[in-house]
């Protein structure tokens, strides 16, 4: 429910009004997933490295694309070295 704004005549949401979630989600290239999805991966090694770094990982090394189309390598996060993977959808996961 909306109430008129006395100052401008515009309507504004009333206190406690429910908010509608946004109609679209913005992909900033930092999605994460529990498990990488197999599929035809068109990311280059450089793009894979950039996406993994954008997800909060540093010192990405040893990236290789496996037979399922998943880029796999090692990276640092929180002071620990972890295995990382990037699937064809752009999802980043730890191994």
Q: Can you describe this structure?
A:
The chain has 95 residues and is mostly beta strands. The protein has a domain at 29-94. Helix content is 11%, strand content 33%. The chain has a 4-stranded antiparallel β-sheet, with helices on one face. A two-stranded antiparallel sheet has the order 1-2. It starts with a strand and ends with a strand.
Extract low-pLDDT stretches.
22-28
Average pLDDT, to the nearest integer?
78
User: Shape, please?
Assistant: globular
> How many DSSP helices?
1
The number of E-state strands comes to 6
**Rg, Å, rounded:** 21 Å
Largest sheet: 4 strands, antiparallel
Q: How large a portion of the residues is in β-strands, by DSSP E?
A: 25-35%
- Termini Cα gap: 47 Å
Q: How are the strands ordered across the major sheet? A: 3-4-5-6
Class derived from helix and strand content: mainly beta
Helix content: 10-25%
Order of helices and strands: EEHEEEE
Topology:
Elements: E1 2-4, E2 11-13, H1 45-54, E3 58-65, E4 71-77, E5 80-86, E6 92-94
Antiparallel strand pairs: 1-2, 3-4, 4-5, 5-6
What's this model, at a glance?
Helices cover 11% and strands 33% of the residues. The chain is mainly beta. The strands form two sheets. The protein has a four-stranded antiparallel beta sheet, covered by helices on one side. Strands 1-2 form a two-stranded antiparallel sheet.
